[in-house]
Amino acid sequence: MRAVVVYESMSGNTHQIATAIGDGITEVMPVTVTSVTDATACLIAGVDVIVAGGPTHVRGMSPARTFREAPKTAIESVKDQRLDDDAARIGVREWLEALPTTHAMAAAFDTRTDIPRTVSGAASGRIDHALRRRGLRVVTAPMSFLADSSNHLESSELARARAWGIDIAHDAMSTDAADTKGARR
Known about the structure:
Layout lengths: L2 E5 L5 H13 L5 E5 L5 H4 L4 E7 L9 H12 L15 H7 L6 E9 L3 H4 L2 H11 L3 E2 L4 E5 L9 H28 L1
Parallel strand pairs: 1-2, 1-3, 3-4, 4-5, 4-6
Helix pairs in contact: 1-7
């Protein structure tokens, strides 16, 4: 089995979380971690598990205007933000819309501010829904990773992301084993 973690990141938090998820998955199976900009169809071809994530903006996935405004926001920010080196030129929303039909397994994640979800929203639920619409089999519930009000990841989030990556890989292996067993009957 082979996995890919695809992320959209503006300030670097989602990039860090994606890397930690990949570190966890790699304990069980080979994995590639890549930004949505570099996640081409040939990279996705033959992948068994796709983990997709992005930041929560405006209660969901980033709108297209986010990419136009990101450099200006990073410069003017009072929160000491910087633009991630892998800041996407497209978002996870556009990437999912262009994703070719595949029968891979999947999982969704997001990064968001550590405030009640009813206030912040969460991109992961919408990413999960889009993955399902594309025909992917989701193996675990969507997950949010939290940043403080200054947009810095909470101290435990990288370790939590790594552990979640391990869980995804094991869930995918179990799902694959059950599918294989059911196919032999």
